[in-house]
Write a structure and sequence with these properties.
The chain is built from twelve helices and 15 strands. The chain is α+β, with helices and mostly antiparallel strands. It folds into two domains: about 240 residues, Bira Bifunctional Protein, Domain 2 (BirA Bifunctional Protein, domain 2, 2-Layer Sandwich); about 80 residues, 2-Layer Sandwich (Enolase-like, domain 1). The strands form three sheets. Strands 7-8-9-10-6-2-1-12 form an eight-stranded mixed β-sheet, sandwiched between helices. Strand 1, helix 1 and strand 2 form a beta-alpha-beta unit. Helix 1 crosses helix 7.
C-alpha cells in the first residue's frame, strides 16, 4: 500500500487528487490531508439547499462537490481527512466498517472509547466525530472520512444553517447530527498533526503501508488540470445539482413582502415568479425577464440587476438583500 501524507490544503486540489489516484493508480493507497475552511457536498446533493450561502461567501468558505454520495460536511484545518483507495471484488467493494476499523484502533490507543454507529458514522458518547462516504470505479473503492479533531464548531454550525423549507427537490438530504471534537476527549493534550502522524504510523505498521509516496511533478500537473477543469468550476459544484424549486418570502423595509418562486434546472433559472405588494407589476416583469436563463448564482444575478438600476425600481430593498433573498 502506498501512503500519501498530502500537505496541500486546497480542497479543490485534494478532491481532484483523490479522483486522479482512483482512476490512474493500480496500487492500494492511503491518503491523509487537511483542507482550509470549506464545505464539501455529496455528489447527488443540491448544493444551495445545504449551505448558508451568505455566511459562506462573507467568510470566504470554499464550496466543492466530491465524487462520492452522502451528506454535506464542513472542513477546516482542525479537521483531518483520511482516504483509502483499494482494489476489491464484486460484491465486496462497499464496506464502511472495514475502512473505519483502523481509526477506531487509533482512538483506542489515545484512550478514547469510540464506536461505529448507523451506516457510516463514528461517534464518542453518541456524538459524531467522523462521517464517511464511498465511491466505486472499475473494481476500485474510494473510501474517505472526516475526523473532527479541533474544528471551529461555530463556523460548522453557521455555514450549514439552512432554511429546510426553501428548496423542493429529489436530491439527497443531509441529516444533521450532534458533533464533537476528538481533542475534547483526550486525557493528554495533542495537536491535529500529531494525531495524523499516529494514524499514518498505525496504517504503516498494521495495514501494509510499506511505501511513503509523494506526488510527482507529472501527478501534480494532471491533478491541477482536473482541479481547474472540474473541481473549481461552478458547473460541477453548483450546476450539477438536481433540478429544484425555490420559494422564499422576505420582508421589505416599507412593511411589504417580497415572494420568490424560482424553478432551476442544471443550475439555470428556467422560470421566475416574483410577487410583492410594495412594487409595481411592470417593474417586477422587467426583473423576471432579466433573470430568466441566468445561472442561479449571486454574482451573475447581481451584475444583471445592476444593469437594470434595481435601486430605482425597488426603493424599499437593497440590491444585496434582494439577491440573497433568492437563495
Amino acid at each position: 500500500m502506498l501512503c500519501i501524507q498530502n500537505p496541500r490544503t486546497d480542497p479543490c486540489f485534494n478532491l481532484a487528487a483523490e479522483e486522479y489516484v482512483l482512476k490512474n493508480f493500480t496500487d492500494d493507497c492511503f491518503i491523509l490531508y487537511r483542507n482550509e475552511p470549506s464545505i464539501i457536498v455529496g455528489k447527488h446533493q443540491n448544493t444551495l439547499a445545504e449551505i448558508n450561502l451568505r455566511y459562506v461567501r462573507e467568510n470566504n468558505i470554499r464550496v466543492v462537490r466530491r465524487l462520492s454520495g452522502g451528506g454535506t460536511v464542513f472542513h477546516d484545518l482542525g479537521n483531518l481527512n483520511f482516504t483509502f483507495i483499494v482494489a476489491g471484488k464484486e460484491g465486496h467493494l462497499v464496506d464502511f466498517r472495514r475502512f473505519t476499523k483502523p481509526i477506531l484502533e487509533v482512538m483506542q490507543q489515545v484512550g478514547v472509547e469510540a464506536r461505529f454507529e448507523g451506516r457510516n458514522n463514528l461517534t464518542i458518547n453518541g456524538l459524531k466525530f467522523s462521517g464517511n462516504a464511498e465511491h466505486v470505479h472499475k473494481q476500485r473503492t474510494l473510501h474517505h472520512g472526516t475526523l473532527l479533531f479541533s474544528s471551529v464548531m461555530a463556523d460548522l454550525s453557521d455555514a450549514l444553517k439552512v432554511d429546510p423549507k426553501a428548496y423542493t427537490d429529489k436530491a439527497v438530504q443531509s441529516i444533521r447530527s450532534k458533533v464533537t471534537n476528538i481533542s475534547e476527549h483526550l486525557s493528554h493534550p495533542m495537536d491535529v498533526t500529531t494525531f495524523g502522524n499516529m494514524i499514518m504510523e498505525h496504517i504503516r505498521k498494521h495495514y501494509g503501508g510499506n511505501v511513503m509516496y509523494s506526488y510527482t511533478e507529472e501527478d501534480i500537473r494532471a491533478i491541477e488540470q482536473l482541479r481547474d477543469e472540474k473541481y473549481c468550476q461552478w458547473e460541477w459544484n453548483f450546476g450539477y445539482s438536481p433540478k429544484y424549486m425555490f420559494e422564499r418570502r422576505m420582508p421589505a423595509s416599507d412593511g411589504g413582502d417580497l415572494v420568490f418562486q424560482i424553478s432551476v434546472e442544471k443550475g439555470i433559472i428556467k422560470e421566475v415568479n416574483i410577487q410583492g405588494d410594495a412594487f409595481h407589476p411592470k417593474d417586477i416583469d422587467v426583473v423576471v425577464k432579466a433573470l430568466t436563463g441566468l445561472p442561479h448564482e449571486p454574482d451573475t444575478i447581481t451584475k444583471r440587476l445592476s444593469d437594470l438600476n434595481l435601486n430605482e425600481l425597488f426603493t424599499s430593498i437593497a440590491v444585496k438583500d434582494f439577491v440573497y433573498g433568492m437563495f
